[in-house]
Design brief:
Blueprint: H1 3-6, H2 10-25, E1 29-33, H3 35-42, E2 49-54, H4 57-68, E3 73-75, E4 80-85, E5 88-94, E6 96-99, E7 108-111, H5 114-119, E8 129-131, E9 140-141, H6 146-152, E10 154-155, H7 162-165, H8 169-180, E11 183-184, H9 186-197, H10 206-213, H11 223-232, H12 241-251, H13 262-270, H14 277-285, H15 290-297, H16 300-310, H17 316-323, H18 328-337, H19 344-352, H20 363-368, H21 376-388, H22 396-405
Parallel strand pairs: 2-5, 10-11
Antiparallel strand pairs: 1-2, 1-8, 3-4, 4-5, 6-7, 8-9
Helix pairs in contact: 2-4, 8-11, 12-13, 13-18, 16-18, 17-21, 18-19
Length: about 425
């Protein structure tokens, strides 16, 4: 068994054997491909599983679904089946050849061989496979010297029409350069620049352009690929110097943010000035979801929030009352995008400390003390504020006394 197959987690090796045995029994051949081969050779963690089948991938998916305990989604046009297995995306794809009827168009797909399937891919480092059936189990298949390019730190396309056929590979090249600390191979760079001169991306729909571009926000450092694209003269409309500045500012504080929110934080930095009508139109044109549009349109309120806090004089309880109804993503963005400004620290403390403070008393406790149901939510909020401001301790007895002492306050009018 070769070194590369040994680098995969044991559950992926067992999965390979199960899929490989079934494929062989059907007269098909199966291979791990793409990013999971590249990352294994680089010693990087492998998450998702991509399998190319010389044969019928849809039929193979139907055969292995019960064995794996999963349900596949089928995409007959592309001969693809997809599912989630043990938290990993698992794709089975029929080996295919792609023909582009015109630059930037979606390809016409025909079943073909493994070599044709690898040749259709974006870069040589993503055009390698590992056999997972029979005698080929664990054998590296590298028709296009992808492993040599990995060793040299090069990003290389497989043919001179690559960027013309699929201009979104321009943005993908910038992502891989930054992520892997590689550089574009000399001829690849020349072909990329030619595609830019030809304005090849004009043939690609805005939704498809932005769908590829926004993958940059998933990178550990989204600023690097955008700086590289600007140096090449290729950026999407609206990628201004101001937006790049905001993203750089956000990058300095991004480690404070939950990892699941980081892509959204950079999207928000990219779109902060959505008050401009043309940007709202671009959001629709580029296919942002309604939820994303709604969130982005609320960003202008962030400046007002920070301006109020900058004035000073706020107690922790007052900050809690001010911020408790804001959406979490807006609060994280307010803090991280303005971490250098006075006032932002209070947002950070709310997110990391103050919002976790809860009263020792429950709604039932308040009802037992005579608080009417319609007032319980308000009393709990006031009790939380008092706790944050040190006007009451976290002991239940003290909090009961605090509630009883305020029965005559205007707060309790209507008891």
């Amino acid at each position: 068994m070769s070194r590369i197959i040994d680098t995969y987690p044991s559950e992926i090796v067992r999965l390979a054997r199960r899929i490989g045995r079934t494929a062989r029994a059907m007269g098909a051949r199966a291979y791990f491909v793409g990013g999971m081969v590249r990352d294994a050779l680089l010693g990087r963690a492998v998450r998702d599983v991509d399998v190319v089948v010389e044969g019928d991938a849809l039929a193979l998916a139907r055969r292995v679904s019960d064995d794996l305990g999963v349900t596949f989604r089928f995409f007959p046009r592309f001969g693809t089946a997809s599912t989630v297995w043990r938290g990993r995306t698992l794709d089975l794809v029929t080996a295919r050849r792609e023909v582009y009827p015109r630059p930037g168009a979606l390809p016409v797909v025909r079943p073909s061989s493994l070599k044709d399937d690898l040749f259709r891919r974006d870069f040589t480092i993503n055009a390698m496979a590992v056999g997972i059936d029979g005698e080929d189990f664990g054998r590296l298949v590298d028709f296009f010297e992808g492993q040599d390019d990995l060793n040299r730190g090069k990003i290389r396309v497989l043919h001179d029409r690559s960027f013309q056929d699929d201009p979104t590979r321009i943005w993908r090249a910038a992502r891989f350069e930054a992520r892997l600390c590689f550089r574009l191979e000399r001829r690849t760079l020349a072909w990329l620049k030619q595609a830019l001169r030809d304005n090849a991306s004009r043939y690609v729909t805005p939704q498809r352009c932005f769908a590829e571009f926004r993958k940059i926000f998933d990178e550990e450092d989204p600023v690097g690929p955008i700086v590289r694209l600007r140096s090449l003269g290729e950026v999407l409309p609206g990628v201004s110097a101001g937006r790049l500045f905001r993203m750089r500012r956000l990058r300095r504080c991004q480690d404070q943010c939950p990892a699941s929110l980081r892509p959204l934080m950079f999207l928000m930095a990219f779109w902060e000035d959505v008050g401009l009508g043309e940007d709202v139109a671009l959001m629709r044109q580029w296919g942002l979801t309604r939820k994303e549009q709604k969130t982005l349109l609320k960003i202008p309120g962030v400046s007002g929030m920070i301006d109020k806090l900058r004035q000073g004089g706020w107690t922790p309880g007052g900050v809690y009352e001010m911020l408790r109804d804001y959406e979490e993503e807006l609060l994280w963005y307010a803090w991280l995008s303005r971490c250098h400004q006075r006032g932002a620290e209070a947002v950070g403390r709310f997110l990391t400390e103050w919002r976790a403070v809860k009263p020792a008393l429950s709604g039932k406790d308040l009802r037992d003390l005579g608080v009417p149901s319609r007032r319980i939510g308000e009393v709990l909020r006031r009790l939380t504020q008092a706790r944050l401001d040190g006007r009451v301790s976290d002991r239940r007895s003290h909090q009961r006394q605090w509630v009883r002492a305020r029965r005559e306050d205007a707060l309790w009018t209507g008891w």
